[in-house]
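Two proteins were folded this term; both appear here.
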Amino acid sequence: MGIIQVFVLSLLFFVLFFGIGFILNMLLRSTWVMAFIFPLIVILIVDDVPMTDYVTSPITAFPALWADLLALQFVDVFILMTGFIGTIVSGIVIRILRKKGYQMF
C-alpha cells in the first residue's frame, strides 16, 4: 500500500469516526459512548467469525479473533488507530462545546 493511500485512508477513518462519534455523543448526551463502542466495530472489521459464535462457541471464536488481530499489519493498525483518535477528538469537542454553553439536543 502506498503512502498516499495510507494517508487518505487514515484521514477518511478519522473523519468517519469523528462524525459518528460526534453524532452519537450529541444524541445520547454521553461524551465517551463511541470510545467504548469502537472495539466492537474493530472486531466487526477485522474478524470474519459471526458474532453469534462468541456466545455459542467462544472456545473457537476468541482464539480466531486473537489470531486475526495479531495478523494485522502495522498499516492496518495505524489506520484503525486514527479512527480511534477521531472518536476521542469528537468526545473532546463535545465537552468543549458543552462547557462553552452550546446545548445539543
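Next, the second protein.
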Amino acid sequence: MIIYKKFIEYFNEEVSPYSLSLYRIGFGVLVMFSLLRFWLKGNIATLYIDPTFHFSYYGFSWVKPLGIYTYLLFAVCLISAFLVIIGFKYRYAIVVLFLSFTYIELMDKTTYLNHYYLVSCISFLMIFLPCSSYFSFDSKQNIKVPKWTVDSLKFMIIIVYLYAGLAKINSDWLIHAQPLKIWLRAKYMIPLIGETLLQQNFSYYLFSWGGMIYDCLIPFLLLNKKTRNFAFFMVIAFHIMTRVLFPPIGMFPYIMIFSCIIFFDSNLHKKVLDRIKNLFRLKIKDVEKFKSINNNSIRKRSIIPILTLFFIFQIIFPLRSNFYKGELFWTEQGYRFSWRVMLVEKAGFTTFKIIDNKNNKFHIVDNMEFLTPFQEKQMSFQPDMILEYAHYLGDTYKKRGFDNVSVYAESYVTLNGRPSMRFIDPKVDLYKLKNDFKHKKWIIPINDDIKSLL
C-alpha cells in the first residue's frame, strides 16, 4: 500500500518545463545538423540513389529509397526538425520527424548505426512528452510538466550506457584488448600521441577497461548531484576523445554529450534558455510561476501505458541474443539494436556461385556488378545480408534465363584479429533458405570461445 502511494505521488509530481524545452531545441538542432551534414557530403546519392540494390530489415522490405524524391524525404525531415526546434505545431512536427527519420534509417540496412536508432527512439519518446509547453510558438499557457516526462529521457540514456558497458564485459574486450588494439595501433598519424602512446600495449588495455568502467558508472554519477559536474566533464572528455580517434562514429558523441544535460537541475536549463533568448533577441516573457496541470487527464492515463511498453521493449529486446546458439560477435544474431557500440572488427570476403541445375551450367558473380564497395564490405561478414543478397542474385539470374537456380557462397571472415575462417557452409543452397528469426545453422561456428556477460 505504501509503495502504491509513493507510485501515485511520483506520477503526480510536477516540475518546471525548462528541461523539456531545452532538450527539444537541442535535439532538433542536432538532427538538423546531422541531416545537413549527410546531404552536403553527397551521401544521399551515394547510399540511396546510386545503388541498384538495397538491403532491407526483416519485415520492412517495402521500405525503399524513393529515387530522386529521396531528397524530398530528407527535406521533409529537415523541415520537421526545424519546427521541433521552434515548437511550432510541435505534436505534428515530432511525429513527422520520427516517421521520416525512421523511414530513412530503414531504407538500407547497410547504413545501420547505433545513433540513428537512438534518434528514432528519442523522437518516438518525445511524441508523448509536453516538450513545447514553454519557449515555443505553441506555448499559450505556461504550465508545469510531469516529473516523469523528464525522467523518461534520463532513463533512455541510462539504458544506452548500461547496455554499452555490460556488453564490454567480454574476454575479447578486457583480456585481449580487442578490437581497440587493432584500431588504436592504426592511429599513428594523430599528433603527439599517435607514434607514442597509441603504439604501447598498456594503452590498449587502459582504453578497453576505461571504456567499460565509464559506460557502467557514468549513469549513476550523473544521477548523483554531488558527482554530476565531474561526471559531465567525463562525458565531454570521453566522447570528444572517441570522436577524434574514431571519426566514422559520426554524430553519436555529440548526441550523447547533449543528452546528458538532461540530468542537471532545471535552473541550469533556464539559464541556457535565457542565453538563447538574449542571443537571438527573442521576445519571450519570463515566467515567475507556472500553472499546475490536470494530472488525471485521459491523455495522461493513455500515455503512461504506452511508454511503459516502450521501455519494457528497450530493456528486453537487447537481450534476445541469449536465445541464439553460437558466438554473438560471429553470427550477429541479435546484435543490432542492442547498444553494442564498437565491439567488433570484422572483415570478410564472400563470393557467390549461381548454378543452373537444369542445363548444368554455373556462373561466378562479380559483386561489383550489383553492389557498391561499401555494400559489399558490409555484406561480406553479416549473415542475414549474405542470405538476402543470395536471394536477389537467384531472382536476377532466373530473369537472365537460368533454370532451377541454386546459390552457393564461399565466405571467409576474420573477427577481432583472428585468422580468417570459413563463415558460410559452402554446401548449403542459400536460395532455398528463408530469412527469419530462427538460428542460422548454415553459419559455420567459430572455433573459439568468447566469454561475455550478456
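The longest helix spans residues 18-40. The two ends are 35 Å apart (CA to CA). These notes refer to the second protein only.
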